Amino acid sequence: MTVADAGYKPPRGIEAYLTGPWSYLRQLDDRRLGTQGSLIGIGRFRPAEDGLTYDERGHMAFAGIDTIATRRYRYSFPTAHRAQVCFDDGRAFHMMDLTDGQDRFRHHCAPDLYEGHCLLLTKTDWRLEWRVTGPRKDLWLTTHYRRFDDPLGCFGLDPV
Predict the structure, then answer these.
(1) What is the per-residue pLDDT across 67-107, written as a single tens digit (0 to 9) for each?
(2) Separation between Cα atoms, residue 47 and residue 95, nearest integer Å
(3) Do the bridges between strand 20-30 and strand 137-147 make them parallel or antiparallel, or are there none, so unpaired?
(4) Residue 25 and residue 9: Cα distance in Å, rounded?
(5) Rounded CA gap, 146 and 121, in Å?
(6) What are phi and psi of 18, to 5 degrees?
(7) In this structure, is residue 157 part of a structural domain?
(8) Domain carrying residue 112
């Protein structure tokens, strides 16, 4: 995982920073299998009853698979710079404290361990890295997000 001294600190808090559309490039590295791939797409944080809903849709090429991949998470914000991330079904995933523009966090999904690092780079760029280890897993997932506007709707910003 990448280490930085400090990340970008959004002046209006993390919810305002995340809200809206982002393009992303996710690099996938399965070190156990020696396979690499990528996922490129559009993600969007939208206001929801208790915070934000994040939806993403992208094209994945990995381990001989060429397909469309989607995911959804729910974000709530107990303070201006903290986010509780939950799976779409409401189960807790992890907490992020981005007071300093970055945070490290863990999620145990027996028998696997997910270790994450989020770094806010600028007002228009951030990175999320995951290291996944377990009896049958040794994965590195690195996602770079960039603020993306699509005023004409050409790129289908309504994923899923």
Answers:
(1) 999 999 999 999 999 999 999 999 999 999 999 999 999 99
(2) 19
(3) antiparallel
(4) 22
(5) 10
(6) -75, -30
(7) no
(8) 14-147
Q: What is the DSSP track for 53-111?
A: EEEEEEEEEETTEEEEEEEEEEEEEEETTEEEEEETTS-EEEEEE-TTSEEEEEEEETT
| Environment class of 142 (CB within 10 Å of its CB; exposed 0-12, middle 13-18, buried 19+) | middle
What total number of domains does the chain contain?
Answer: 1
User: What CATH number should be reported for the domain holding residue 23?
Assistant: 2.40.128.20
Residue 156 within any structural domain of the chain: no
Q: Give pLDDT tens digits for 41-69.
A: 999 999 999 999 999 999 999 989 999 99
Residue 119 token pair: 């770094």
Residue 143 identity (one-letter amino acid):
T
**Is-cis flag, bond preceding 111, omega within 30?**
yes
Q: What is the pTM of this model?
A: 0.88
CA pair distance 31, 130, nearest whole angstrom: 13
Phi then psi dihedrals of residue 98, to 5 deg: -105, 30
